[in-house]
Write a structure and sequence with these properties.
The complex is a heterodimer of chains A (400) and B (376).
Chain A (H helix, E strand, L loop, with lengths): L6 H17 L2 H6 L11 H13 L18 H13 L8 H14 L2 H12 L5 E4 L15 E5 L2 E9 L9 E7 L10 E7 L5 E6 L8 E12 L3 E2 L5 H13 L4 H21 L5 H31 L4 H25 L8 E3 L2 E3 L2 H12 L6 H12 L13
Parallel strand pairs in A: 1-4
Antiparallel strand pairs in A: 2-3, 3-7, 4-5, 5-8, 6-7, 9-10
Chain B lengths: L6 H17 L2 H8 L7 H11 L17 H14 L5 H15 L2 H13 L4 E4 L15 E5 L2 E12 L6 E8 L8 E7 L5 E5 L9 E14 L6 H36 L1 E2 L2 E2 L4 H30 L4 H27 L10 H13 L4 H11 L3
Helix pairs in contact in B: 1-4, 4-7, 5-6, 5-7, 7-8, 7-9, 7-10, 8-9, 9-10, 9-11
Classes of the chains: A alpha+beta (400), B alpha+beta (376).
The structure holds flavin-adenine dinucleotide.
Flavin-adenine dinucleotide sits at the interface of chains A and B.
């Protein structure tokens, strides 16, 4: 056990700091860390910033050098994220592309697919969205009904996805479809890659309780994509999708965990400014959230060490998503306690608009975090059944 | 002992529910919450003329029907259930009780009939930008010159402060602190020197305003300087009323959750068949039922106007605040993605629950109050 940087890690840290100091200026610095993976605040500026990151290969940090990455290991990724959060740099915009799709592509893609898609993710030329959930396939993702059939050299997709975050910004969607019409459950699914901007796709925005419309319904009515745009073997999409979910629940959220440190620091500032920090109840809560924050970090480091040393995520990985979402929700409530009566008023409301302030945004948005990427109930089932080996709950048709 | 509503009270509940279901469906709530005024004057009028809701607990001597606090709480519970957008709580609970507690006989005669008929919309302006719910938060100064009083300072989070015709203001006389010098005044909504700014409320179904007073001429309500007992009593009554209103919303989100848990199928089964969801619903029921017990008991104490009121009001506000918020939050979780949308009503209740929890002081505030009142 040693938490010091090795000489090469220290050098890497220095490089990251120097780059940020040089580039994080002007509009980029002014933006701060507003927005999030599914919050479009400051979008245009964040796109410009992400392009700069891509140009200097900070996007795709962990990818092998042959695909334009830096081949960075886990310690370097942590260092990058730490320095990034410390510098209060803009919220990243490529959660679905860089965070979810790219690592899945690296694991399952053909050489040609990697060369086709990775550079454009890095250059921020193509943004991605995730087409998994459907009206009747949420927690029960295997119940997917969206169908794809081959027509010559093309897949033709019909069906409906829902809750598709940033579909309206995306150029591509990775979409889980049923390619074997006779199949049921997780058999007969394929992981297709489909261009978003085409006639066969209609996007209808869905407004969230935070007032903005980051997620959407996506209707496929004869949408087309090339036959080669399938990731992994046809009919084996479930396995590929599970890998994506693994990244979503695990490594992809590393960067937001570090963002939590910034949120906490900001809240502490506010609590000192308003005097809330001298209220014993608020102090107790803030200290409890701090404990939670640090433990989350230690958990993360232990999980990643396991990942590096054993190549597989240990049981800590499955508690990761449950942990951070539960913590963040409690943090949102603490943030409102710090605001006190001021929490009664938002930045704007009425006449068709609704804009919470930053603390209220966390308070509300954190309610979604225990729902998406496998709800807390589902995470607990996974921990119970797959980590602890407890008997499964009976399914329909099974005798108990 | 008899801890049940009478047949007449149940009948009142049915009538009010029927009226509100017709007049305040979700579509109306959504329409009104987008407006600055935040209520429908014609429905407000009907509430007064057809059902006499504004007059329900006002004594007959002042143009009311003379029912008790229990009937008032039944009405409020029904209003909380549908998130009625109207200045009812501000006018009938806050202002009317402040006047009853603080006013002279003559002032009650003059002010209450208008509130009771619904012709006057009134409110109580007490909280200030400091956001404190206790008496130290009252800093707005009242000064006397040649027998007439004027107010200068700022009030915040004033429920329906921008639409009220009559504003009851809690102020303090110059040079006082703590419970000394607390005074009530009345001011017309359109008084000279009064600037009213509507606020963007987190809970859009309940409107608030910021009121700035610069030398506003004001009429003392009761004896200036000795308003503390009346103010304290008004706050206790307000907390009890709010606790009852909250339970209407809490029951509604519980019902919504249970229905959804029966209807929504995942993994080939209704999600309510999973213990994770079933236990959530059971926990919600436990808290909602318990919250109702506390709120109803407190309503009875307020109706009796007995010396339990200070204790049970703090107790009920503490318990019901948390019960409602938990229920409204779990309701979102049980609904999954759809519960996070603007289109679904879950967030309206979630926001109302949070703002009701905060309003008048949250659960920890009321537990501290309770600790003091029971001598801990
Ligand atoms: C803000 C937001 C963004 C999203 N973005 C995307 C996106 O970009 N792409 C995408 O594909 N999807 C996205 N989703 C969808 C998300 O993955 C689903 O909402 C989630 O999988 C839950 O599905 P559901 O909404 O259908 O709820 P349901 O599955 O119907 O769940 C309802 C309730 O039942 C519980 N439940 C279900 N099954 C069980 C069980 N077996 N045991 C115990 N409890 C159970 C759940 O925990 C939940 O409380 C997003 C969702 C949100 C809220």
């Amino acid at each position: 056990m040693d938490f010091h940087d090795t000489p090469s890690e220290a050098a890497f840290r220095e490089e990251v700091r120097a780059w940020l100091a040089e580039h994080l200026t002007g509009d980029f610095a002014a933006l701060g860390s507003v927005g999030g993976p599914s919050d479009e605040t400051g979008w245009e500026t964040r796109v410009e910033w992400e392009k700069l990151l891509g140009r200097d290969r900070w996007v795709g940090l962990s990818w092998p050098a042959e695909y334009g990455g830096r081949g960075a290991g886990v310690p370097e990724q942590i260092i990058f994220n730490e320095e990034y959060a410390r510098a209060n740099a803009p919220a990243r915009i490529s959660f679905f592309g860089e965070g979810l799709f790219a690592p899945t592509l690296i694991q399952f893609g053909t050489e040609e697919q990697k060369r086709r898609f990775l550079p454009r993710i890095q250059a921020v030329e193509e943004l991605w969205c995730q087409g998994f959930s459907e009206p009747n396939a949420g927690s029960d993702l295997a119940n997917i009904q969206t169908r794809a059939v081959l027509d010559g050299d093309e897949w033709v997709i019909s069906g409906q996805k829902v809750w598709t975050t940033l579909a309206h910004r995306a150029d591509w969607i990775f979409v889980l479809c049923r390619t074997d019409p006779e199949s049921r459950g997780h058999h007969g699914l394929s992981y297709l890659l489909c261009p978003m901007r085409q006639d066969g796709i209609e996007i209808r925005p869905l407004r969230q309780m935070t007032g903005s419309a980051e997620f959407n319904e996506v209707f496929f009515d004869g949408a087309r994509t090339a036959r080669d745009n399938v990731l992994g073997p046809v009919g084996q999409g479930w396995k590929v999708a599970m890998a994506t979910l693994g990244f979503e629940r695990g490594t992809a959220f590393l960067s937001s965990q570090l963002g939590f440190e910034r949120e906490f620091a900001d809240l502490l500032d506010l609590a000192h400014k308003t005097g809330a920090a001298s209220d014993p109840v608020v102090r107790d809560e803030l200290a409890a959230r701090y404990v939670g924050l640090k433990v989350m970090r230690y958990n993360g480091m232990r999980m990643l060490t396991n990942l590096v040393q054993r190549g597989v995520a240990g049981p800590e990985a499955s508690i990761g998503k449950l942990y951070w979402t539960t913590w963040h929700r409690a943090f949102g409530e603490t943030a409102l306690r710090v605001l006190g009566a001021d929490a009664l008023v938002v930045a704007r409301a009425g006449g068709g608009t609704y804009e919470p302030g930053p603390q209220q945004q966390v308070f509300m948005a954190s309610r979604a975090e225990t729902i998406y990427a496998g709800s807390s109930e589902i995470q607990k089932n996974i921990i119970g059944e797959r980590v602890l080996g407890l008997p499964r709950e009976p399914r329909q048709g099974e005798t108990s | 002992m008899n801890f049940a509503f009478s047949e007449e009270q149940e009948e009142l509940r049915r009538t009010v529910r029927q009226f509100l279901e017709a007049k305040s469906p979700e579509t109306e709530v959504r329409r009104l919450m987008e407006t600055t005024e935040g209520y429908d004057p014609s429905v407000w009028k009907q509430m007064g003329q057809e059902l006499g809701l504004q007059s329900i607990a006002v004594p007959e001597a002042y143009g009311g029907q003379g029912f008790t606090f229990i009937e008032l709480c039944i009405v409020l519970e029904e209003m909380g259930r549908v998130l009625l957008c109207a200045p009812y709580y501000s006018s009938v609970v806050l202002a009317a009780n402040a006047i009853l507690n603080a006013g002279t006989e003559e002032q009650k005669q003059a002010l209450l009939p208008g509130i009771a008929s619904g012709d006057t919309i009134a409110t109580l302006a007490f909280t200030e930008p400091n956001g404190k719910w206790d008496v130290t938060g009252i800093t707005l100064e009242a000064t006397e010159q040649g027998g007439s009083w004027s107010l200068s300072g700022e009030k915040m989070f004033v429920l329906d402060g921008h639409t009220a015709d009559l504003i009851v203001v809690v102020a303090r006389t110059a040079g006082t602190s703590g419970t000394d010098g607390i005074s009530f005044f009345t001011v017309r909504g359109d008084a000279d020197g009064l600037t009213r700014t509507p606020l963007s409320t987190m809970d859009m179904t309940r409107k608030q305003a910021k009121l700035e007073f610069s030398g506003v001429a004001a009429e003392p309500l009761g004896e200036p300087g000795s308003g503390w007992p009346a103010y304290s009593k008004t706050l206790d009554q307000a907390a009890i009323a709010l606790a009852n209103e909250m339970m209407g919303g809490a029951q509604f989100v519980l019902d919504m959750s249970v229905q959804y848990a029966k209807d929504r199928v995942q993994f080939g089964r209704p999600i309510g068949s999973f213990q994770a969801i079933k236990h959530k619903c059971a926990d919600m029921l436990l808290e909602v039922e318990s919250g109702k017990s506390a709120a109803y008991y407190a309503a009875w104490a307020a109706a009796e106007d007995n010396d339990e009121v200070p204790v049970v009001s703090a107790l009920a506000k503490a318990y019901c605040s948390e019960a409602y918020f938990h229920a409204a939050a779990e309701n979102i979780q049980i609904h999954g993605g759809i519960g996070f949308t603007w289109e679904h009503p879950a967030h309206l209740y979630f926001k109302r629950a949070k703002s009701s929890e905060i309003f008048l002081g949250d659960a920890t505030y009321h537990r501290e109050l309770l600790a003091q009142r029971i001598g801990i």
